[in-house]
């Protein structure tokens, strides 16, 4: 069994490694990753392990930020200090969760649960977990930043610097307020769930806008609205007719 550990506390990582070797001596720890940035880079450059054991809170974000940028294809055991309500959600949707500090009996139980998975239950678990991550990943359930790849570099973009997200020709582009375009590996539907709904609004099926990027709103044909974006952004978007009422309420919120 090949395992990757995501843990930014050195003593906790060493303790977890020792426990793994005690319980499953044949297991290989391929890598101990210490940050969101390092983890995204490693998973993009290496074959998937059999299992991930991951802390949730990391120094540069949360492990949710990793799994939003890297497709979740393998089981995850989370180490967490989240409240009981969230723990129950993880109990249902992830392979398992471990309360820190991790003890041998709990980790052993997690391994048993992993080994009992079949293909169908794993597929359901990963699908449910991806949805859960989208809902509870950031402060008050919203994203604080996005990690995006540009060439061989991984950039971190705070949400407050984002003008919007545009879907076109099968891809989604993140636009910054300085009119920089970055390719992001998520759909608008996924993004809509993750973003602060006071700051971001889905204007139509192709565009999500940040309130900071709205320069002026004008009446348009067929009861729609035209939104002009602040400079240096050089384009405009139409608010679909069915969203006009909720858009006006969003502007006043």
Task: Describe this protein's structure.
- By secondary structure, the chain is an alpha/beta fold.
- The protein has two domains: 2-137, Rossmann fold; 145-252, Beta Barrel (OB fold (Dihydrolipoamide Acetyltransferase, E2P)), CATH 2.40.50.1020.
- The chain has helices spanning 10-23, 36-45, 63-69, 84-93, 104-115, 119-136, 188-194, 244-252; strands spanning 2-6, 28-33, 51-55, 57-58, 61-62, 76-80, 96-99, 145-150, 153-158, 162-168, 171-176, 181-184, 200-202, 207-210, 214-219, 225-229, 236-239.
- It has a five-stranded parallel beta sheet with strand order 2-1-3-6-7, with helices on both faces.
- Strand 13 (200-202) and strand 14 (207-210) form a beta hairpin.
- Helix 2 (36-45) runs parallel beside helix 3 (63-69) and helix 6 (119-136) packs across helix 7.
- The model is unreliable at 137-141 (pLDDT under 50).
**Radius of gyration, in angstroms, nearest whole number:** 21 Å
**If classified by CATH, what would the architecture of the largest domain be?**
3-Layer(aba) Sandwich
Which word captures the global form? elongated
Would you give the CATH topology of the largest domain?
Rossmann fold
* Strand arrangement across the biggest beta sheet: 2-1-3-6-7
Mean pLDDT: 83
CATH superfamily grouping of the largest domain: Response regulator
Strand-residue fraction?
A: 25-35%
